[in-house]
């Protein structure tokens, strides 16, 4: 299977079911996604191999058997790949996302834990390594999740450990791409690191008057300070709208059950969906998720549940 075949992704659920009705069809598709230029052994980098069985290749260089799924999100899965393909289609075809319970019901999975694990593995794959940074005019602000917030002259305070920083790119009067991340504090080093990691140097960064944003090197810093007594339009309308949509999604689709421990995964999903909200093809979203999943690191149940807040 070549690159052209990979780009010819399914357009409908009927097309998905007919094209990938057998395990071998799914594995062939994933092979082309993982090695579009041909097999490359992850152990010795040899480009020659023989197919030994479905999903397994015998490397001619080091004589190791290499699984198409090894070193990916799908590693060690006991589920048929057809079930994974249906899960990826369902997740990307739902405008507002899905819950683990909803996925369990749709796929007829035997346990909630299985659905939960599938979702979190795929959420981790929703961040593409080396993705392009935001550029142009970018608004940046912080928010919280799960606790009351106090603002005003006394500065930022929160009773929650969970703080989120959000960047929203300007696309004319509309919102372009976004980025989100959990942060430990509002310190200058923390906020500047997020900006450097997610926004191209030379871009215009718009923030509020928080002192931690000062001395932002390498950017045009548009620092906005609003007199609350004067009222007027919000100073950072795009990023504030994104924050509002995020909280509505967490409270709506996830019914407020997004644990602090896994909030990073939920942010990954929200960003993935938001940045592709104008895509007219559900099949293209399926292709993007499948491509990123086959190139993402494995994530086991114990790895996920052993995280610390």
Domain module count: 2
For the biggest β-sheet, the strand order reads: 8-7-4-9-10
Low-pLDDT regions: 1-5, 147-154
| Rounded mean pLDDT score | 86
Largest sheet: 5 strands, mixed
Shape category: globular
What share of residues are in beta strands?
15-25%
Helix content: 25-40%
Structural class by secondary-structure content: alpha+beta
Order of helices and strands: HHHEEEHHHEEEEEHEEHHHH
Task: Summarize the structure in words.
By secondary structure, the protein is of the alpha+beta class. Helix content is 38%, strand content 17%. It has a 5-stranded mixed beta sheet, sandwiched between helices. The protein has a 3-stranded antiparallel beta sheet with strand order 1-2-3, with no helix packed on it. Strand 7 (163-171) and strand 8 (174-183) form a beta hairpin. Helix 4 (81-93) crosses helix 10 and helix 5 (100-107) crosses helix 6.
Can you tag this structure with a few keywords?
309 residues, alpha+beta, Nucleotidyltransferase, domain 5, 2 domains, 5-stranded mixed beta sheet, 3-stranded antiparallel beta sheet, 11 helices, 10 strands, 38% helix, 17% strand
Give a quick rundown of the structure.
The chain is an alpha+beta fold and 309 residues long. 38% of the residues lie in helices and 17% in strands.
């Amino acid at each position: 299977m070549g690159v052209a075949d990979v780009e010819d992704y399914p357009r409908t659920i009927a097309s998905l079911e007919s094209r990938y009705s057998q395990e071998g069809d799914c594995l062939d598709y994933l092979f082309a996604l993982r090695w579009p230029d041909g097999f490359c052994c992850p152990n010795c980098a040899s480009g020659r191999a023989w197919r030994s069985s479905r999903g397994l290749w015998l490397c001619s260089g080091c004589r190791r058997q290499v699984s198409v799924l090894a070193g990916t999100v799908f590693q060690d899965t006991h589920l048929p790949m057809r079930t994974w393909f249906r899960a990826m289609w369902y997740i990307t075809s739902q405008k507002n996302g899905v819950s683990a319970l909803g996925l369990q019901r749709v796929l007829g999975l035997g346990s909630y834990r299985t659905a939960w694990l599938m979702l979190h593995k795929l959420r981790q794959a929703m961040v593409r390594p080396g993705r392009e940074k935001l550029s142009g005019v970018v608004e940046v602000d912080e928010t919280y999740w799960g606790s009351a917030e106090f603002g005003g002259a006394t500065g930022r305070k929160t009773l929650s450990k969970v703080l989120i920083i959000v960047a929203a790119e300007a696309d004319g009067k509309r919102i372009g791409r976004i980025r989100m991340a959990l942060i430990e504090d509002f310190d200058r080093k923390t906020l500047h690191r997020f900006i450097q990691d997610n926004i191209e140097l030379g871009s215009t960064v718009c923030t509020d008057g928080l002192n931690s944003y000062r001395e932002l090197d390498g950017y045009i810093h548009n620092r906005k300070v609003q007199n609350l007594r004067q009222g007027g339009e919000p100073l950072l309308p795009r990023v504030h709208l994104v924050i509002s949509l995020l909280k509505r999604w967490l409270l709506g689709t996830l019914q407020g059950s997004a644990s602090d421990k896994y909030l990073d995964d939920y942010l990954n999903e929200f960003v993935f969906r938001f940045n592709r909200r104008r895509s007219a093809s559900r099949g293209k979203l399926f292709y993007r998720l499948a491509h990123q999943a086959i190139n993402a690191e494995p994530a086991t149940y114990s790895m996920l549940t052993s995280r610390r807040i």
